Amino acid sequence: MAAVPETVYARDGDAHLAYQVVADNGPDLLFVPTGTFPIDLLWDEPTVAGHLRRLASFSRLIMTDLLGVGSSDAVPIHDRPAMQAWTDGLVAVLDAVGSECATVFGMSESALPVMLLAASHPHRVRSLVLCVRMRAFSAPTTIRTGCPNRRSPGTSTPLATPSGVAV
């Protein structure tokens, strides 16, 4: 197993944002995981670590915790950051690693700030990957959620288009 990458910090004003850079095997891929699992702990789970190594096999994998999450600076509960503060932190991480343009991959609650990053800094985002396993609050109950049980070769996760159809 490859060594766990060092966690370093980017500055955004007075805040410090934790990030890791894994490999340098291709175009930049900024991965912003769910706030449930800080980047330092993702490597402790063998299945997740395997997925991260797979991402790093074709990219320069840049992983970061959002402000107030994981190893990034904490914020008081009554002073939670606005969405733009999270987006500014992502820009600070891209700047710290010298990335002019990256594919950005957001999961669950990190999907909103990465979508705002793509909308507010389109020149910095080559493409956007979203893994959001939650149903829209306003979706009618007739909308089918989830994906057919079709798997991509060599993975354990179904691949789907925005319409929910497996590819």
How would you describe this protein?
It is a single chain. This protein is α/β, with parallel strands linked by helices and 167 residues long. It folds into two domains: 8-131, Alpha/Beta hydrolase fold, catalytic domain (Rossmann fold, 3-Layer(aba) Sandwich), CATH 3.40.50.1820; 136-167, no CATH class. The protein is 23% helix and 22% strand. The protein is built from four helices and six strands, in the order E-E-E-H-H-E-H-E-H-E. The protein has helices spanning 39-42, 46-56, 83-96, 111-120, and strands at residues 8-12, 15-22, 28-32, 60-64, 102-107, 125-131. Helix 3 packs across helix 4 (111-120).
Query: Can you tell me the CATH class of the largest domain?
Result: Alpha Beta
Share of helix among residues? 10-25%
**Tally the helices: what do you get?**
4
Terminal Cα separation, in Å?
A: 30 Å
Q: Give the spatial strand order of the biggest sheet.
A: 1-2-4-3-5-6
Assign the CATH architecture of the largest domain. Answer: 3-Layer(aba) Sandwich
Topology:
Layout: E1 8-12, E2 15-22, E3 28-32, H1 39-42, H2 46-56, E4 60-64, H3 83-96, E5 102-107, H4 111-120, E6 125-131
Parallel strand pairs: 3-4, 3-5, 5-6
Antiparallel strand pairs: 1-2, 2-4
Concise account of the structure shown:
This is AB hydrolase-1 domain-containing protein. Residues 144-167 are annotated as: Disordered. The chain has helices spanning 39-42, 46-56, 83-96, 111-120; strands spanning 8-12, 15-22, 28-32, 60-64, 102-107, 125-131.
